[in-house]
Amino acid sequence: MLIDTFWKLLLKTIGLWLLFSCISVVPQFFSMISSINGSIDFQNLLLLLVMSCTTIIILVIIIRLFLFKTGWIIEKLKLKDNFKEERIDITIKSTTVLTISIIIIGALILIESLPNFCSTLITFLQQKELLKDYPQTGWLIYHFIKIIIGYLLLTNAKNFTKFIEKESHEN
Question: Which residue spans traverse the membrane (predicted)?
Answer without folding.
Answer: 9-33, 45-67, 88-111, 139-157
